[in-house]
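// run 5 | inverse folding | seed 20
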């Protein structure tokens, strides 16, 4: 069983930055691919970024490429989403997720991810 706890959300002006953290307990190093999704009311959960079990591969949705960076610190069992140049359309609840996947696969659909955090609100004002 894996428990995920997100933190780092908040209110920021457009153009600003935030770093989200996802602390994982019960997780074995290199066992899970990790991802961030986001959701706004009335819409489906949207893929944002993911990193493979090996840490060698990452993937981003087009709207955040060049602005967001996903990374992991296995010594702390924590993953991060660094978000720069934030835009009002980035406003959402952000969820961390963990899932079993082949070593270098970077899944982008929610069905791959078995464990989810409770979410953290990110609000970007214009």
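// decoded
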């Amino acid at each position: 069983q894996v428990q995920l706890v997100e933190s780092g959300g908040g209110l920021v002006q457009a153009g600003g930055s935030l770093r989200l953290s996802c602390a994982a307990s019960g997780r074995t190093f290199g066992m899970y691919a990790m991802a961030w999704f986001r959701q706004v009311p009335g819409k489906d959960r949207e893929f944002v970024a993911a990193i493979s079990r090996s840490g060698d591969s990452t993937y981003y949705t087009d709207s955040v490429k060049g602005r967001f960076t996903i990374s992991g610190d296995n010594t702390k069992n924590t993953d991060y989403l660094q978000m720069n140049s934030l835009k009002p359309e980035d406003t959402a609840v952000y969820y961390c997720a963990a899932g079993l996947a082949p070593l270098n696969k970077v899944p982008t659909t929610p069905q791959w991810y078995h464990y989810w955090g409770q979410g953290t609100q990110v609000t970007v004002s214009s």
